[in-house]
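User: Here's a structure from my thesis project, written as structure tokens. My advisor, Dr. K., wants to see whether a designed sequence matches the one we expressed. Can you design one independently, without my sequence as a hint?
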């Protein structure tokens, strides 16, 4: 829909005005019967004028994507649908103003403006038009593991809050989900079982095809030359590329892939690992950025972030942050844009464009449901897929579908019982297939043991941000497992594709030779780790020796006898 709105400055000073476009969709008996919830109005577009002098006017043309009018029908069609009934678009200053405009158009005596409202009627329920993504991929339920009413391991039925019966569905006490045997089993670390997969043949390793990552620059993800390039990788190189990605993409000699440095953050390039030189710009908090309703400003912010990264030799940024402000008490709300999925998505997409236009990769974080900072390690989130898709994932979606974002950082969050990076419905079927994202995905810093290499790689995770060799050690055990080696090869495909199209290739030419060297910081960390292990082993030996002597002493024997 093309919405034309003329804004006139009738105030007493020059200024700018934001025009917000809201939609009200029908709330029908079908919705009530199938548990589809609707807001009274939803933000679906906005525009901002230039600086208007007194009495001056400007006509804004704001585009509204009809796809944003659809609702996800979890328990009925299992995909997006448009209801039959009356629809209203209105131009407003905010959500309350939008509701009043629509109520006025319906004949209610409230303080609204019916002239700013457009109404039309859809004759039939439509469950097919938006049952495919923008790239043509069929859309179906993918996140039932986080819905107690669909997850097969649950024996607890949840009544979701519904506008069809506010009083009857409003929770009066804390909702408790009973822990079942299947939940306990699903919570255990390491779910991979080769028996669950069809037999595979081992891929080619260590071939001499003469290709380099330089040869792949600008080629599509499915170019046949990628298979030849991937055949050149050794198993150890794949292990290192996937499992040893702590703030650094490992260089790979067999395909002449340079290493690459990645650092924080959403509001300005920062680092607590290696000093950033020259110093980077400190930017305002993301919620203030979003409150400007100025996408072009966010694009310029992205340019600043990209330039700072280039100046510091950083080719991938841990950001922007695109989680939802679920409550005002969210510990990292300052890194995230908004409580609204649509606004967050637009702002994220424009920041991503600005960063990636400088050649710097983004790793949008934290994917997904990271709206609580306190106790986020291991937290299990339960929700239905409509809420997931229309609120929490919508904040990320535009960055991938519209801005071609090249990466994502995975949250610590569990969807129900399963860690985010091990949810194939999220990491592969939605992120890669529906949204068409072929770049890389990296974990948050691994400081928990439920983030495992096998489960993540099989689901679509491609790199692990870890100071410790836990994932490296785990993956090394799969050298003769064709299921895992094929999955690792696919992960490396995504990693190298992102690398080939990033600033990590700046300065790399046809005849550039890549050799593996160890950064001094890594060397220091290895030394510190070895010293720590020696001291720990020595102290353990001393403790064991002393404890043994004590048990053999007369005093200990007498104490043991009397007690």
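Assistant: Designed independently from the structure alone:
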């Amino acid at each position: 829909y093309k919405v034309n709105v003329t804004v006139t400055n009738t105030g007493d000073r020059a200024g700018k005005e934001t025009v917000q476009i809201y939609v009200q969709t029908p709330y029908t008996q079908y919705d009530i019967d199938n548990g589809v919830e609707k807001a009274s109005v939803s933000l679906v577009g906005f525009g901002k004028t230039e600086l208007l002098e007194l009495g001056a006017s400007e006509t804004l043309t704001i585009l509204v994507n009809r796809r944003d009018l659809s609702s996800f029908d979890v328990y009925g069609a299992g995909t997006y649908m448009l209801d039959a009934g009356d629809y209203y678009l209105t131009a407003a200053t905010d959500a309350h103003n939008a509701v009043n405009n629509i109520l006025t158009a319906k004949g209610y005596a409230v303080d609204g403006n019916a002239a700013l409202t457009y109404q039309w009627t859809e004759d039939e329920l439509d469950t097919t038009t938006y049952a495919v993504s923008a790239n043509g991929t069929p859309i179906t339920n993918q996140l039932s593991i986080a819905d107690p009413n669909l997850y097969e391991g649950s024996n607890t039925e949840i009544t979701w809050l519904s506008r069809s019966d506010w009083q009857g569905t409003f929770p009066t006490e804390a909702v408790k989900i009973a822990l079942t045997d299947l939940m306990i089993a699903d919570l255990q670390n390491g779910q991979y079982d080769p028996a669950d997969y069809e037999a595979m043949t081992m891929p080619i390793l260590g071939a001499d095809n003469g290709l380099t990552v330089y040869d792949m620059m600008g080629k599509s993800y499915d170019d046949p030359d990628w298979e030849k390039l991937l055949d050149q990788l050794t198993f150890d190189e794949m292990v290192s590329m996937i499992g040893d990605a702590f703030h650094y993409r490992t260089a790979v000699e067999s395909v002449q892939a340079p290493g690459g440095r990645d650092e924080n953050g959403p509001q300005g390039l920062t680092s607590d690992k290696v000093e950033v030189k020259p110093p980077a710009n400190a930017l305002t908090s993301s919620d203030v950025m979003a409150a400007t309703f100025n996408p072009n400003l966010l694009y310029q912010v992205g340019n600043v972030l990209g330039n700072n990264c280039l100046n510091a030799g950083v080719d991938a940024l841990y950001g922007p942050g695109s989680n939802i402000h679920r409550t005002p008490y969210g510990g990292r709300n300052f890194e995230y844009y908004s409580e609204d999925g649509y606004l967050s998505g637009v702002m994220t997409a424009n920041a991503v464009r600005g960063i990636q236009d400088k050649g710097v990769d983004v790793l949008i974080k934290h994917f997904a449901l990271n709206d609580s900072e306190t106790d986020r390690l291991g937290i299990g989130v339960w929700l239905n897929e409509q809420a997931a898709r229309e609120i929490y994932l919508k904040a990320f979606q535009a960055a991938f579908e519209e801005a071609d974002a090249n990466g994502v950082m995975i949250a610590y969050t569990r969807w129900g019982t399963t860690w985010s990076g091990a949810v194939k419905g999220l990491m592969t079927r939605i992120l890669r297939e529906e949204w068409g994202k072929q770049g890389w995905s990296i974990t948050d810093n691994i400081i928990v043991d439920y983030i495992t290499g096998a489960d993540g790689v099989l689901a679509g995770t491609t790199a692990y941000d870890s100071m410790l060799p836990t994932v490296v050690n785990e993956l090394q055990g799969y050298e003769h497992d064709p299921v895992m080696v094929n999955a690792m090869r696919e992960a490396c495909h995504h990693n190298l594709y992102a690398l080939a199209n990033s600033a990590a290739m700046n300065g790399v030419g046809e005849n550039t030779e890549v050799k593996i060297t160890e950064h001094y910081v890594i060397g220091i960390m290895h030394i510190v780790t070895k010293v720590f292990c020696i001291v720990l082993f020595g102290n353990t030996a001393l403790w064991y020796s002393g404890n043994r002597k004590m048990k053999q002493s007369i005093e200990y024997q007498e104490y043991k006898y009397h007690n």
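When you compare it with your expressed construct, this may help: DSSP finds 18 helices and 18 strands in the chain.
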